[in-house]
Amino acid sequence: MLKTSISTTGKKALLFSCALATSYLAHAQQMTAALNNVIKNTPQGHTMQVPGLLSEQIPALPYQKIVLPGPQFLISDDPEYIRVPEGVALREPVQPGSVRLYLYNVNGVQEPEKMDRKIAAVIKNTGSQPMHIRMLKYSSQQPTTNYFFAGKQGLADFFQSQPETTAREVKPGASICLDPKQDKAVVKYDELVHGFYEFVIDQPGEISIVQTDLKTPATVAAARVKNALATKQYAGAGRGTYGISNYRIIVKDTLDTQNGLTQVLVADGEKDPWVIGKEATTGELKSLDGNYGILYNIELSWKSTDGKALALMTWNPRGDNGQWCGGMANTMVVSGGKFREGVIQLPSNQLVTTKAPEAILIQVFTPPAGGGVQKVHFTYSPPGASCLPTPLVLVPVDLR
């Protein structure tokens, strides 16, 4: 399940506080030769043990946050668990242009008994002309109870996907399944349906997330269910249409490796607040607790006056906060360094990371010959099924 926090439902905001009073030097002194060798010899994406290195008091770098142009953004995760045999979890209008949809819903039917269902996204053409729909990015996993895998693999598939070259046509007033595989997939009790889609349309439409029986086409069920289910904000990250889909994060000052450990901290709910959207059924404003589905394009300038490289790693600071936060898994896109640029699953050698002293090595950026300032980029999105935040820690390391 999408998890920003811990409570009896695992759904209240976790707040990450950074004690900025801790000096850079104090953290730099924790980098022993043994820890340096661990980082130096760890393969990309793998977990490693770095005792004494990680804490929530690592100084956070100040940054400028810019809202980038992006698609209309819809998320369906409230109610997260669909408890009725047939119902609509989300119903939202969309306008011509690009759309991003994050589907995160679970078959939660227990009454009159646990039963197999299907959960699917349906788009209806509400315009007066034929609609043409073409996928730009696409990610869809088989229904699963392995929520960490769905979140991590879902981001990997989304980042690696390629635009479709042909469009599907939908006649005025007609509907189709956004993801045809969902109309055939069996969703057992407690299984998650996880889909992450970005597509373009040329007519206004309406998107419904519907749960129904295995024999009924999802389009038929969406048409006969007139009203969306009531929201239960405590049991999901959010539902509705949100005006922000992409951020650019620009770290204000040039990082120098001689100053020791630092971190970039986003999706914490404080320094980086949750975005606000509107839910069409009720007209209510809705907070997206966790900013799940939003892409952060992070840009950092750095230099090495002491000749050291710069390791980028992450860890799970909430590993002790009960059953909901015991693991963390993610996928990022990172620029080149010691390892190739591209998409990397975190971790790549196991399903999740648990808690300190375990960390995941994302990349090691090497100083340019002759010194100077260089820029690095990485793309982050809050990982579904994991508690937040996921700190992006920058550690000077000697590769010599």
Mean pLDDT: 91
Helix content: under 10%
Task: Show unreliable segments.
Answer: 5-29
- Give, in order, the helices and strands: HHEEEEEEEEHEEEEHEEEEEEEEEEEEE
β-strand percent reads 35-45%
* Content-based structural category: mainly beta
What's the N-to-C terminus distance? 43 Å
Q: Kindly provide the radius of gyration, computed on alpha-carbon positions and rounded to a whole number of angstroms.
A: 22 Å
Shape descriptor:
elongated
Number of strands: 25
Structural domain tally:
2
Keywords: Signal
Protein name: Copper amine oxidase-like protein
Signal peptide: 1-28
Describe the structure.
The structure is a single chain. By secondary structure, the chain is mainly beta. It has two domains: 24-69 and 245-397, no CATH class; 72-242, no CATH class. The chain has four helices and 25 strands. The relative contact order is 0.23.
List the helices and strands and how they pair.
Blueprint: H1 24-28, H2 33-41, E1 47-49, E2 63-68, E3 72-77, E4 81-82, E5 87-94, E6 97-107, E7 118-125, E8 131-140, H3 147-160, E9 168-170, E10 175-177, E11 192-201, E12 205-212, H4 218-224, E13 238-242, E14 246-251, E15 255-256, E16 262-264, E17 276-278, E18 285-287, E19 295-303, E20 309-314, E21 330-334, E22 342-346, E23 358-365, E24 374-380, E25 392-397
Parallel strand pairs: 3-6, 4-6, 14-19, 15-19
Antiparallel strand pairs: 1-23, 2-14, 3-13, 5-12, 6-11, 7-10, 7-12, 8-9, 8-11, 13-17, 16-25, 17-18, 19-24, 20-23, 20-25, 21-22, 21-24
